[in-house]
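Q: I have 308 residues here and want to know how they pack in 3D. Can you give me a structure?
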Amino acid sequence: MAQDMTDVMKKAETLIEALPYIQRFNRKIIVVKYGGSAMVDPELQKNVIKDVTLLKLVGFKPIIVHGGGKEISRWVSKVGKEAQFVNGLRVTDEETMEIAEMVLNRVNKNLVTMVQELGVKAVGISGKDGGLLKVDKKLSNGQDIGFVGDIKDVDSKILYDLLDNDFLPIVAPIGLDDKFQTYNINADDAACAIAKAVGADKLVFLTDIEGLYRDINDKSTFISRITATEAEELINSGIIGGGMLPKLNNCTSAIRAGVNRVHILDGRLLHCLLLEIFTKDGIGTAIIADDDNLALGVPRDGFCNHEN
């Protein structure tokens, strides 16, 4: 009985710890970029959707921007094609674009269904709907990689309308150019552009790593919190490479555009969103504005725990 009461009290303490964060972010917009392993593992998928739904129910205004790269690659291989990437971007010919749009729309509606099963109204759209995402053709270091879009404009009105009417928007990263040609968009790029356009308080990237490291091979170099300027210094130093480089560029770009905080989380960890947002220590890497860092008196090495 005593142990049961201790467990109950711990749960109560957790709820009380979350209270100031619920108060602070009430009615604030949070953009969640959803991708990686958390999309393909059914159990992780259910828990991510539960987390986002809970955010909605306690007063946040979440927007999900999802990927679907692994599922697209699976379907590409089914038609006898081999997925090709240049600098982390999928080479997208006409047939691949058709497959990508089919897969992303299917993923989109599955996510809508999962949210609505939990009692929250959701609307799934792509960047084509309402002219949400307008793009130009994207080149990779001057190389033509097909129908890959570079976002030039976000018409945020459709998202504001959905949020104001108590819907949870779920966005597939597909856009149109000025000639109404369909383009595939990197989901990180789409999430970043949307977060900037709607003035999001938070932008969260769910990834397949714990967060940011100064040395990926040395777990002791994990960075819990870092300013935008420090992140840019890391980028320019050449320490950051691979798929984390464009992601970190998106993080600093979002901060410079007014997004309050950007979080890189391990989507493979159950309830990572709740642990990061509603607990004092957090679990991932937070990228913050330079003046935010100074106001909190955080050392410039960026290795301390972070309050949200």
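Q: Anything worth noting?
A: Confidence is low (pLDDT under 50) at residues 293-308. The longest strand covers residues 143-154.
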